[in-house]
Amino acid sequence: MPEVVVAALIGAVSLLYATAGQAGGSAFVAVMGLAAFPAAQLRPTALLLNVVAAGYATWRLRASGAVNPRTFALLAIPSVAAAFIGGLLVLDERVYSGLTGSLLLAAGVLLVVKRSAVRPAREPEPGLVALAGATKGLLSGLTGVGGGVFLAPLLIGLGWMSAREAAAISPPFILCNSVVGLAGVLLSGQSASSLTPLYAAAALAGAIIGWVIARQSMSERATRLVLAALLTFAGLRLALR
Question: Rounded to an integer, what is the distance from CA 43 to the centroid of its chain?
Fold first, then answer.
């Protein structure tokens, strides 16, 4: 697949994810899977793109006061430790493809079944929050997927947060996991694609435009269905590689 097409797809999925309060790690992996990137380049490249997209969203959210500091700390502290450990682990290419493909398929399903309605949040059990954070951090480091696409449906489904609160906490959570996971990945000896600057520029452009669109009247359901189709197709391709 030509590099400019890959960059355009990365920009497009970054835009779509930004409209739903996500960075796009699962879709970045999906695009690179479709483009047949070497497995050794998938994780570091996806994590770098996550840092760019989630960093922009976190910067925009920093002054809003929408993030609950206590809940974020309970999620992030065990998550970043687990993400670093996951980043140090290098899976066999077939195992990596099967695991990541399965997670992309799961992400696609979650995007379809996730409800956008705001529901009352109840105070979560600290131990369960920490366990959820650690699990998603480990998966983030292992696969290069930031974890936000799994985090938000979980937080909403368990009644821990409203949809708005979950969308607000996702970017800083993804950013923390991606930075630490990337450090582990680089220490493991893997390196990103030489064209990462081009892809990062596309991801940033998509995140900026997506943030603007998110403030308008775009249908969240349509966004989720498009992303779900991409994740499902790429997940099947990776899982069957």
Answer: 12
Closest CA to 50 of 20, 30, 82, 24: 24
With cut-offs at 50, 70 and 90, classify the pLDDT of residue 115: low
Specify the DSSP element, H or E, that contains 220: helix 220-239
Contacts of 206 (CB under 8 A, 6+ apart): 10, 11, 12, 13, 14, 15, 16, 17, 18, 24, 53
Whether 44 contacts 183, CB under 8 Å: no
Both tokens assigned to 37: 């990137």
Number of Cβ within 10 Å of residue 64's Cβ equals: 8
pLDDT at site 117: 47
Report the pLDDT value the prediction gives residue 232, as an integer from 0 to 100.
80
Tell me the per-residue pLDDT of 12-57, one tens digit each, with 9 for 90 and over.
989 988 877 777 777 888 888 888 888 788 889 988 999 999 999 8
Contact (Cβ atoms closer than 8 angstroms) between residue 42 and residue 140:
no
| Type of residue numbered 87 | G
Q: Does pTM surpass 0.85? A: no
Residue 24 amino acid letter: G
- Kindly report, residue by residue over 173-194, the tens digit of the pLDDT: 888 888 988 898 899 888 899 9
- Phi, psi (deg, nearest 5) at residue 161: -145, 155
User: Cα separations (Å) of 43 from 93, 96, 194, 216, 227?
Assistant: 12, 10, 14, 33, 20
> Token pair of 152, please?
């938000």
Q: Could you tell me how far CA 136 lies from the centroid of its own chain?
A: 10
**Half-sphere exposure (Cβ direction) of 219: Cα atoms closer than 13 Å:** 7
